[in-house]
Amino acid sequence: MNRRKFIKNSALTGAGLAVGNSLISCEEKASKTNETSATITESNSKANLPLVIATWHVKEATAKAMGILQAGGNALDAVEQGCRIEEANEKGQSVGKGGLPDRDGNVTLDACIMDKHGNCGSVVYLQNITHAVSVARKVMEDTPHVMLAGEGAKQFAISSGFEPEDLLTEASKNAWKKWKVEAKYKPIINIENHDTIGMLAIDKNGDLSGACTTSGLAYKMGGRVGDSPIIGSGLFVDNEIGACVATGLGEEVLKTVGSFLVVELMRQGKSPQQACEEAILRIVNKPNSNFKDFQVGYIAVNKQGETGSYAIHQWFSMTKFQDGVNEQIQSNFYNKV
Ligand code: ASP
After folding, report:
1. Is 196 a catalytic residue?
2. What is the spatial distance between Cα 66 and Cα 78, in angstroms, rounded to a whole number?
3. Ligand 1, residues 95, 102, 214, 255: which to mutate, most atoms within 8 A of Cβ?
4. Whether residue 33 has pLDDT greater than 50
5. Which three-class secondary structure string do you get for 213-231?
6. Do residues 308 and 259 make contact, with C-beta atoms less than 8 angstroms apart?
7. Position in ligand 1 atom list of the atom nearest CA 110
8. Which of 251, 257, 265 is nearest to 235 (CA)?
């Protein structure tokens, strides 16, 4: 089945629920992707460090992270600063400022971060603060807790010096108003309608960190939280073994504790590529899985600096910066029919 047909079929089932706007941007993204990307690869070579990988096409973000790593900075600073680039980018409608809102018009952000010691911080249902990833880091470093939610997270951010602001841009407001005309109850899921930024880095010392930030699914129910801020689902880092970060339909990642699973599979001896593939199989091989109607993608790196990525459907990509090359790499995928 070709890609256009896939989208059409998904929309017809009512579970794909793609609207015109998203499809147009997806088509644009896909053709852009074709022009600029490297071929599907699994890296097996003993890696030169440092390195950084991220979900989707985010070369500016990986460049920022690599700048920090090259200057001798640590992986934690690199992933935080890299993610902040996309959070501040109003054109990215699934992260930070300009993120698409929930069905009531509220932009609510989820983010988490994890360091080489296994420390982690997370914010869920955060409103009015652009740099959710930095609030998550503050939770990790300045509180005795791992996760803060909603109003408590916002008040903590403000008391830590973050400026509250309106995150709903004109573009996002207009897209939401358009969606409201037909307002389907289920969230819009399309195979490329995911822009969660997940970033993993290894610094010159060989230490790993990871971060993940998102506005979650567009037009989700008020109060919905996905996988991205949940340690073990959206992100997991084990400095002895490796790290993984997820994007796509968070509910499916949560049900399989995806990122932890990938890291545990690497612990058992699988390469990052093999581990990502097995984690995707856990989702698609479930009895009655409706995987044709949603996308999930994983990227992973092991302690040796080998990387991998895999998704249910075509057009998932990873950005990788290593050895002076900052490139977008198309991910291999399960659904080849
Ligand atoms: N995983 C995110 C969520 O479910 C969405 C995404 O990756 O686009 O909230």
Report:
1. yes
2. 7
3. 214
4. no
5. EECCCCCCCCCCCCCCCCE
6. no
7. 9
8. 257
d(CA 308, CA 42): 5
Which residue out of 33, 196, 214, 319 is catalytically annotated? Answer: 196
Q: How many helices (H) and strands (E) does the chain have?
A: 10, 13
Q: How far is the CA of 216 from the centre of ligand 1 (A)?
A: 5
The encoded tokens of residue 275 equal 């581990």
Structure tokens, 46 = 């003993």
| Angle (nearest 5°) at CA 28 between 25 and 34 | 140
> pLDDT tens digits, residue range 117-160?
999 999 999 999 999 999 999 999 999 999 999 999 999 999 99
In angstroms, the CA 292 to CA 273 distance is 22
Which residue, judged by its Cα, is nearest atom 4 of ligand 1? 250
- What does the block give as tokens for 251? 């509910």
Instruction: Say how far apart CA 74 and CA 275 lie, in whole Å.
Output: 26
Residue 212's H or E segment, with its range, is strand 208-214
Domain boundaries, given as residue ranges, for the chain: 3-12+19-333
Q: Tell whether domain 3-12+19-333 is in CATH 3.40.1190.20.
A: no
**Taking CB atoms and a 6 Å cutoff, what residues make up the pocket around ligand 1?**
94, 194-196, 214, 216-217, 226-228, 247-250
